[in-house]
Amino acid sequence: MSDIRERQLRIAAARADFLEYGPAGAAGVDDVVAASWERSHDAGVDADRYTVAFFEDIDFDSRLARCAQPVIERLARDMSDVPVTIALTDAKARIVDRRDCSTAVGRVLDRVDFQRGFCFDESGVGTNGVGTVFEVGAPVTVVGNEHFNQSLVQFACAGAPVFDPLTGRVAGVLDASMLADTWNPLVDALIRSAAADIGRNLLLDRSQATRALFETYLRADSRPRQAVMAVGSAAPQLTGSDTVIANERAREILSPADQERVVEFTRFLMSRHDSGARRVTLDDGRSIRLRSTAITYHGDAVGMVLLLDEVDDSAPGSIRLQPLRSLSTPIARSEPASSPAWQAARAEALAALESGTGVLVIGEPGSGRLSLIAEVFHEVYGDAPVVVIDAQRVECGEQVAGPESAVDDCALLVIRHLDKVSATTVDTLTLVVATATEAGYLSAVTIEPPTDEHPSAVTMPGIGQSVAIPPLRLRGSDLHTIVVRVVKALAPQRNSRISPKAMRVLAAYSWPGNIPQLREALAEALRRRPVGEIQPDDLPGYCRANTTRALTVLEAAERDAIVTALIECDGNRVRAAASLGFSRSSLYRKIHSYGISGV
């Protein structure tokens, strides 16, 4: 009797003992297999009853599938004389491609649903050459009785993970399956090599911009003991925009939460085209020196590579991440903000006002420009008065401009929307600011981020410092706090709260209208569910869509109809397309066009 046959008999006995007596019965079995048996048992997999989940809505033409196609075709040609079937899965263990080098083996695999669309995760079918790879994160060979489910013991399979070289995540698994009696260990080596080739293709498929980011990161990472991170642009239209890489040293000095905040702050710096050295103090009191190199492509900032160093917290020039207190209704003044970008802006405004310098506040509408500058002013000067002039109302003749008398100590004059009015109104308000400055007022001007330089921003008297306010989409660490406060402000007498699933939907949306739009969305959710826990279905349809362009009224209606149909069909694209009268391909195209996600 051959050694292979004897080994299979020993494993078969151990498997029977495991199923009867538990982990103690798996003595003598490979540690990877024994651990997989335990996970399969704990997940409730039935060793005798065989079921495989099928999914209709799978992208069989994904980037992974395209990059793998030439490798799989070459592998199939090289193994044309071997009785084997080659399969590729996506990141959820669902088969997206299958090539039969032997029709006989293919027919047998058909009987166990080893076909496109079926899911072979370990929690569903037990130990196998696909699902176990995801659990281990490394190549796995499962032969005969090493399978947990009885229906699979007739097979042998070798699976290898396909890693995305930029994210380091398992993008899929390449598997070779054959009958256990014909198993050849050389198959394992071929599969590992082919999986590595697919990973290289994934890198080559990335845009030139992303490759430039990766190459710059590799050069920086060559420095000994240097903490390095690479952050892709937040712009969804850029390939690889979700790229975040951190080397081992960066992971040592930054917790996952700290890494998220650094990424958020970096994307804020990219939005300002602001590179160079910054010092940021984290929640635990440590100070990090951040040196950034911007990666540009065709004039767009597509990423940044960061060199991170721990520095003395008392070093001069550090940005102190101070608690935030907002004057706006939905955000309590005593509530701190952890967003580094917001805290950096606040620190800059605080330093300017303490020195008696006027401030130009740049930010998107609804991002909290007035709230921040007024709050910082009150921190420095107590209850001194704040006078707010809306430049657009002045231009329309609706507002009488200017303070009327001198002040005993200090006061603040804020000119809003100066970039939205004519040169004549700017000249009028310039005189008003000059008069107020003589009367003892400090001045502040709020504008939107310019596409071209605003001449009005630099001609105002007393303006000596500019501060950029981050939009809500770049304040992810503050979002939960803001949502809770908005809900409390909108429904102070109700027992209303936000569910984790609804919170994930809110976090995934880009909020082009910032906090006012968030307040509007939560108000609608509260109308639908006056008390209790707000669910994703209670939120407006646009919360599930992210698109960089403005939609027409008809497009917005179509988007909302698609979201509603997807919700009613429990996310089933086929049924949703039928209910809307679309073809499935049209629905997928519209989902991508409108940036619909989370449904």
Automatic annotation (TrEMBL):
One Pfam assignment: AAA_lid_14
Keyword Thylakoid in annotation: no
Keywords attached to this entry: ATP-binding, Nucleotide-binding, Transcription, Transcription regulation
Membrane spanning stretches: none
Highest taxon above the source species: Bacteria
Sequence ranges assigned to domain Sigma-54 factor interaction in this UniProt record: 466-527
Gene3D superfamilies, sorted: 1.10.8.60, 3.30.450.40, Homeodomain-like
UniProt-listed PROSITE patterns: SIGMA54_INTERACT_4
Protein name in UniProt: Fis family transcriptional regulator
Protein species of origin: Gordonia tangerina
Lineage per the UniProt record: Bacteria, Bacillati, Actinomycetota, Actinomycetes, Mycobacteriales
